């Protein structure tokens, strides 16, 4: 197992070669993907995790998407967080971004565990709050090569990132805040996918209108559907139904007592592409809400009435 400086030196050499290659295509941040994946594996080993237990699941790179981070990180096949990669020199403080990157941050900050990096710096965010300080490398990712270095603090931050566990809300008010943040992210992801003419979401919206609300436009569909799904998942937890067992199972069980919510979830899971298209927000919802103990049903109904609009 390499020590931190060996891992960083290898990362620096691989990144410099990729960025300097005249045959490279795509955006500069795309050239960091392979070096970063190797670095994440090395950092996981330095944090004490067995080889192969941490996986970096890369997403399809679409520059127009604002709700889809570059990576989902899993630990023993359980989602622990997300990573957003920026071009070298852009920095790792999304609060200073402008334009598209600023708009993306406004959406991604709803995620409960998020890492930003441009190769030169790393920042870790939990529920939009910066964890510690931004970790800066010594050197430059584009030119330092094997001379690139990093403080030991990077391992400590990455360890905290990998060991993240959702903290169950202590009250209905706390639960409302958590649910609203993730519901808003789901709504944004639905809206974005509809604008992209996603076949899965376009068909999903058509089925929703046909079965439930024929007059709903795209904005109304995204808002109503995200609330229905979020409330359905909360209702499932109130009945102690484990969400990680599969949303298709959740939809079938809820459909026995609530046809609207059950239908909303069944439409989502009828086609594999539907759920996969919304995997960022749904993955976060499932991971966070599964940590919530089974609350009294009355509390959930009270919560639903208070949170008619997630904005």
Note down, in words, how this protein is organized:
By secondary structure, the protein is α+β, with helices and mostly antiparallel strands. The protein folds into 2 domains: 4-162, tt1808, chain A (Alpha-Beta Complex), CATH 3.90.1570; 172-306, no CATH class. It has 12 helices and 7 strands. The protein has helices at 4-20, 33-46, 99-108, 153-162, 172-195, 199-211, 218-238, 247-255, 259-270, 272-277, 279-289, 297-306; strands at 54-58, 71-75, 78-85, 114-117, 121-126, 129-130, 135-136. Strands 1, 2, 3, 4, 5, 6 and 7 form a 7-stranded mixed sheet that branches. Helix 5 (172-195) runs antiparallel to helix 7 and helix 5 packs across helix 12. The radius of gyration is 21 Å and the shape is globular. Mean pLDDT is 86; it is low at 307-311.
Helical/strand content category: alpha+beta
> How many individual β-strands?
7
Strand content: 5-15%
Mean pLDDT: 86
Q: CATH fold name of the largest domain, please? A: tt1808, chain A
**What radius of gyration results from the CA coordinates?**
21 Å
Instruction: Report the span from N to C terminus.
Output: 47 Å
Number of helices: 12
Tell me the number of structural domains: 2
Helix content: 40-55%
User: What oligomeric assembly is this protein in?
Assistant: single chain
**CATH architecture designation of the largest domain:** Alpha-Beta Complex
Q: What is the overall silhouette?
A: globular
Highest-level CATH class of the largest domain:
Alpha Beta
Low-confidence stretches: 307-311
H and E string: HHEEEHEEEEHHHHHHHHH
Largest sheet: 7 strands, mixed
């Amino acid at each position: 197992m390499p020590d931190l400086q060996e891992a960083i030196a290898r990362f620096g050499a691989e990144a410099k070669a990729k960025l300097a290659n005249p045959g490279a295509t795509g955006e500069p941040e795309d050239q960091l993907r392979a070096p970063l994946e190797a670095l994440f594996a090395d950092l996981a080993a330095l944090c004490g995790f067995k080889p192969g237990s941490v996986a970096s699941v890369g997403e399809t790179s679409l520059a127009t998407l604002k709700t889809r981070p570059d990576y989902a990180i899993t630990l023993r096949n359980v989602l622990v967080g997300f990573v957003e990669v920026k071009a070298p020199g852009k920095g790792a403080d999304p609060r200073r971004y402008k334009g598209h990157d600023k708009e993306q941050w406004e959406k991604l900050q709803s995620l409960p565990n998020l890492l930003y990096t441009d190769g030169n710096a790393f920042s870790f965010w939990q529920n939009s709050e910066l964890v510690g300080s931004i970790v800066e490398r010594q050197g430059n990712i584009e030119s330092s090569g094997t001379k690139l270095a990093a403080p030991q603090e990077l391992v400590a931050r990455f360890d905290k990132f990998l060991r993240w566990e959702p903290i169950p809300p202590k009250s209905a008010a706390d639960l409302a805040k958590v649910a609203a943040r993730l519901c808003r992210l789901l709504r944004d992801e639905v809206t974005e996918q509809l604008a992209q003419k996603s076949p899965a979401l376009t068909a999903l919206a058509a089925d929703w209108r046909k079965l439930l609300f024929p007059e709903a436009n795209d904005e109304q569909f995204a808002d109503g559907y995200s609330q229905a799904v979020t409330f359905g998942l909360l209702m499932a937890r109130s009945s102690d139904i484990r969400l990680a067992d599969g949303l298709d199972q959740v939809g079938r069980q809820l459909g026995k007592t609530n046809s609207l919510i059950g239908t909303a979830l069944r439409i989502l899971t009828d086609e594999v592409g539907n759920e996969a298209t919304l995997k960022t927000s749904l993955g976060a919802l499932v991971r966070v809400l599964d940590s919530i103990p089974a609350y009294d049903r009355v509390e959930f109904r009270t919560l639903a009435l208070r949170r008619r609009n997630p904005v």
